[in-house]
């Protein structure tokens, strides 16, 4: 019986299959069995991790260390290891880096994986495979740099198959591979299908430019490997067609290219969900965050007043919730003499490209956009971000304002916050405080669930009870800005394997 078929009948059988293949499986009632967190401490050499938050306490421990060094590899002296790495042009950095393997036999892949390797006609591991496989099978975090055609896809796919075979049925994918383009994603899927066939591992490829229906059906039926481009995957997550709660093996293929294409916010959003489930969001400390509580009908006048104060020819990005809102506000701004253009999903690709080129060139320094249209948007020197409409999640808030303050520069973000957004007040306060911002008393009161003042949030009542003005003219100011450190490595054809700890 196959691994896939055996899960529902005998949860232990698929583990026994891997155990018979030389990966040293230890039964769960064996005292030597280690959960993922203890394995990380042993192999990464780190101190015990702090206690997990309560929202992760119920997650099932998983195995990620399946590597047993073969006698021939163990017998290699340090001199022999260095000579092999020199001859294969392998350069390594890090601590406790395992020795490279010289043959497929040294890796100890299970028979069902080796059958596919033999079918493919491979004779020996490529350099990225020779050094990458022991690290990936140990469950180590890995950044691998290799040229095209070097076998890097199998460098992460074969350990992924072993990883999947060790996990029980889960309520979502186990392996997630992110790729920058549809073409690369399809190529990866072809390899995953070929090498996962013997153990009946299901996969699907999620990318834009095609109908979502077939992709949604694949996800609903259940798959263990998802290969995706960032934008379409976030669409699927936002639509609740899948989740990343049980992803324990994450690959960013050609991560440098994704960063060059402007996918950093999407990558951060996805990785946050994989690594810690419900993350403690943190904003870039180089961004001045200003939040003003207003009423809905005050927004446009507030926007015009703000533009009058800050307009100096710098690029200004204004976020709206809807396409209709983008068009309406852009039309009104242009009627009032402001150089504004809009970008959203209903515009043709040619029009979107033209709007973006005008914005980048500074010919139209004001651009309104929806979240979907702004995905993958990489424009340098955006000085101001304005949240005309507050987004539907705190993650999107952090990603929106992250369009400014990039590459070590300072930036400023303004946000209009209404009573309809009150449910986000408490978490927004946490983000502001973590970034060293001052929080207005009105926002604090809203976060506590206090009743609105006379006249409602966003207004002050004058002594005669008529009219009034908006409270708190952007009352949140930056306090002790801290240095922002860019956290993504950029290199030629970077492969990042991230095992959730």
Automatic annotation (TrEMBL):
EC class of the enzyme, as a word: hydrolase
Claim: Isomerase is one of the keywords in the record: no
Occurrences of domain Helicase ATP-binding (ranges): 133-389
Keywords carried by this UniProt record: ATP-binding, Helicase, Hydrolase, Nucleotide-binding, RNA-binding
All residue ranges annotated as the DEAD-box RNA helicase Q domain in the record: 102-130
EC number: 3.6.4.13
Region described as Disordered: spans on this chain: 1-59
InterPro entries recorded: DEAD/DEAH_box_helicase_dom, Helicase_ATP-bd, Helicase_C-like, P-loop_NTPase, RNA-helicase_DEAD-box_CS, RNA_helicase_DEAD_Q_motif
Motif extent (Q motif): 102-130
Domain spans labelled Helicase C-terminal: 302-447
Compositional bias annotation for Basic and acidic residues: 1-31
Top-level taxon of origin: Eukaryota
Pfam families: DEAD, Helicase_C
Protein's UniProt keywords contain Disulfide bond: no
SMART domains: DEXDc, HELICc
Family per similarity comment: Belongs to the DEAD box helicase family.
Protein name as annotated: RNA helicase
């Amino acid at each position: 019986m196959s691994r896939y078929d055996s899960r529902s009948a005998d949860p232990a059988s698929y583990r026994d299959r891997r155990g018979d293949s030389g990966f040293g499986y230890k039964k769960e009632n064996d005292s030597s069995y280690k959960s993922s967190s203890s394995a990380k401490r042993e192999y990464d050499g780190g101190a015990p991790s702090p206690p997990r938050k309560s929202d992760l306490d119920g997650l099932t421990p998983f195995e990620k260390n399946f590597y047993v060094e073969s006698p021939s590899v163990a017998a290699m002296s340090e001199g022999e290891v260095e000579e092999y790495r020199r001859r294969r042009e392998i350069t390594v950095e890090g601590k406790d880096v395992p020795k490279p393997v010289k043959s497929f036999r040294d890796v100890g892949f299970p028979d069902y994986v080796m059958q596919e390797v033999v079918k493919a006609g491979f004779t020996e591991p490529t350099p990225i495979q020779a050094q990458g496989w022991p690290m990936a099978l140990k469950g180590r975090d890995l950044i691998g740099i290799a040229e095209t055609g070097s076998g890097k896809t199998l460098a992460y796919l074969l350990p992924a198959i072993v990883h999947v075979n060790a996990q029980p049925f889960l309520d979502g994918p186990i392996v997630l591979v992110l790729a920058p383009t549809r073409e690369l994603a399809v190529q990866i899927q072809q390899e995953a299908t070929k090498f996962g066939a013997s153990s009946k591992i299901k996969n699907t490829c999620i990318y834009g430019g095609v109908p979502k229906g077939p992709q949604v059906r694949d996800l609903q039926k259940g798959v263990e490997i998802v290969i995706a481009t960032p934008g379409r995957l976030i669409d699927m997550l936002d639509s609740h067609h899948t989740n990343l709660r049980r992803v324990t093996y994450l690959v960013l293929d050609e991560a440098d290219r994704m960063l060059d294409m402007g996918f950093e916010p999407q990558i951060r959003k996805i990785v946050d969900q994989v690594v810690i489930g419900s993350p403690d969001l943190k904003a870039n400390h180089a961004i001045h965050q200003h939040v003003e509580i207003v009423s809905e009908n005050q927004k446009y006048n507030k926007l015009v007043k703000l533009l009058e104060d800050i307009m100096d020819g710098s690029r200004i990005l204004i976020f709206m919730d809807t396409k209709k809102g983008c068009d309406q506000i852009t039309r009104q701004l242009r009627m009032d003499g402001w150089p504004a253009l809009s970008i959203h999903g209903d515009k043709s690709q040619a029009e979107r490209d033209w709007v973006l080129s005008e914005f980048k060139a500074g010919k139209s320094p004001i651009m309104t956009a929806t979240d979907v249209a702004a995905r993958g948007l990489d424009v340098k020197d955006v000085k101001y971000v304005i949240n005309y409409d507050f987004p539907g999640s705190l993650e999107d808030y952090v990603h929106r304002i992250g369009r400014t303050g990039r590459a070590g520069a300072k930036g400023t973000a303004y946000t209009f916050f209404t009573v309809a957004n009150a449910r986000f007040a408490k978490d927004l306060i946490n983000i502001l405080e973590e970034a060293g911002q001052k929080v207005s008393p009105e926002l604090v009161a809203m976060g506590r669930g206090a009743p609105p003042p006379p006249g409602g949030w966003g207004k002050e009542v004058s002594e005669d009870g008529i009219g009034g003005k908006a409270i708190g003219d952007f009352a949140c100011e930056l306090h002790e800005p801290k240095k922002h450190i860019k956290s993504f490595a950029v290199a030629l054809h970077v492969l990042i394997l991230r095992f959730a700890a």
